[in-house]
Amino acid sequence: MYCKALGNETGRPTLILDIGSLLGSLVGDTERNIRQALRRADAMSPCVLMVDEIEKALSGSSSSTDSGVSARLFGTLLTWLSDHTSDVFVVCTANDVSRLPPEFSRAERFDGVFFLDLPTQAGRELIWPIYLKRYGLKAKELPEDRDWTGAEIASCCRLAAMLDISLKEAARHVVPVAVTAAESVEKLRTWASGRCLTADDGGIYHRHANGEPKVTRKISRASTN
To answer: Which residues contact 130 (CB under 8 A, 6 or more apart)?
Structure first.
């Protein structure tokens, strides 16, 4: 969704690179497929190139169980990220960046590694109207939505419209991922603290002891006088 919006804002086509579909059954197929896909991205520049859930494709790059295919695919992609001169803006998403090889996210391959935390209250207030409008709902009062994601807000609105019940009633059937995967969310927040930029605001992402995200802003060069 973000990449499509970015492409629309910048007037660029958005390309999706599905690394899993590049894996071939014959020797050399995978390497040929990744090179061909990257050449096509170069040819279509300027463009936005999105690779979704990249850790699932590259987390096994150090394994020898596939005769080195993953390692060669990884090497080809790394070389292209470092050397390509075409105007291709690359965006990769990962549910767990810690599974990626460290050399993948070093400087000059990517401009930044951002941690996208659960939406803040301000963020959720912007999401609700989108789905209320989509499902033709009008709400005088919204349900308690602490730690909800956009998908859970969408689910609540869909259930309310489908079952013809209030949003508060529909919210009783929504269990947020912050509850179902609390340990995983906490692990990711701990890993990202101090290592990543925050996607919500400028600066480095840090995590408060009370569980709320904190942002350390970069010092501005502008005069304070």
So the answer is: none
DSSP one-letter string for 151-190: HHHHHHHHHHHHHT--HHHHHTT---HHHHTHHHHHHHHH
Mean pLDDT of 186-204: 85
pLDDT in tens, 83-131: 889 999 999 888 877 777 777 777 777 888 888 889 989 999 999 999 9
Rounded CA-CA distance 199/115 in Å is 6
Cα–Cα dist 160/168, whole Å: 9
pLDDT at 74: 82
Q: 184 — phi, psi (to 5°)?
A: -65, -40
Q: Are strands 197-198 and 14-16 parallel, antiparallel or unpaired?
A: unpaired
For tokens 């090179």, the residue is: 35
Task: Tell me the longest C-alpha to C-alpha distance in the chain.
Answer: 67
197-202 contacts: CB < 8 A, separation 24 or more?
197/112, 197/113, 197/114, 197/115, 198/114, 198/115, 198/117, 199/114, 199/115, 199/116, 199/117, 200/117, 200/120, 200/123
- Check residue 94 and give its pLDDT: 86
Rg (CA), the chain: 21
Helical ranges in 18-110 per DSSP H: 29-43, 55-58, 69-83
H/E element, 136 = none
**Distance between CA atoms of 21 and 33, rounded to whole angstroms?**
9
Task: State what percent of residues in the chain have pLDDT above 90.
Answer: 36
Q: d(Cα 84, Cα 38) in Å, to the nearest integer?
A: 9
Q: Is-contact 205 196, C-beta < 8 A?
A: yes
